[in-house]
Amino acid sequence: MSEKFFNQVYDVVKKIPYGKVTTYGAIAHYLGSTKSARTVGWAMNNSHKYNNIPAHRVVNRNGVLTGKHHFAGSNLMKQLLENEGIIIKNDKIVDFDICFWDPGKNKK
DNA sequence: TCAGTGACTGACC
DNA sequence: GGGTCAGCCACTG
Question: Do the domain assignments include residue A106?
Fold first, then answer.
């Protein structure tokens, strides 16, 4: 089923620990193909209808908050991340290398 | 049904 | 080192 891909994306995002972030590519790679990152993005686009998806913890490979415009406020995504101890500067995660969380590392 | 689009990424020139 | 192209999957008109 195609919705399984979405379900897996949501499942991974929900497993992101507090104070950690991941990338579309990491999720896509975890699900099979790094090139499926677009679909991950589309899944996040649909995630707004779910209130248990921490989409603010998902950024692109540069650590840039590319999806912040999809939140209620442009600074909401930044505020949520900073609230978790993540430093944001110019819509970009400063200590991205430290905050990065790889889904594969958490694989059961 | 076909074509276009999207919160992306990697490879190529 | 920067711009362009193609691939991925799902949704919409």
Answer: no
Measured CA to CA, the distance from residue A6 to residue A19 in angstroms comes to 23
* Report field, pTM of the whole predicted structure over 0.70: yes
- A8 CB below 7 A from strand C atoms: no
Domain coverage including residue A82: 3-99
Strand B bases, protein C-beta under 7 A: 6-10
Task: Give average pLDDT by consecutive 10-residue segment, chain A, 108 residues.
Answer: 76 94 94 89 89 93 91 89 94 92 78
A28 part of a folded domain: yes
Q: Residue with CA nearest B6 C1'?
A: A42
Q: Beta carbon of A40 within 7 Å of strand B? A: yes
| Tokens coding A82 | 């900073």
Residue A48, CB, strand C, below 7 Å = no
Q: Give CA separation, A66 vs A69, A70, A105, in Å.
A: 7, 9, 24
A107 assigned to some structural domain: no
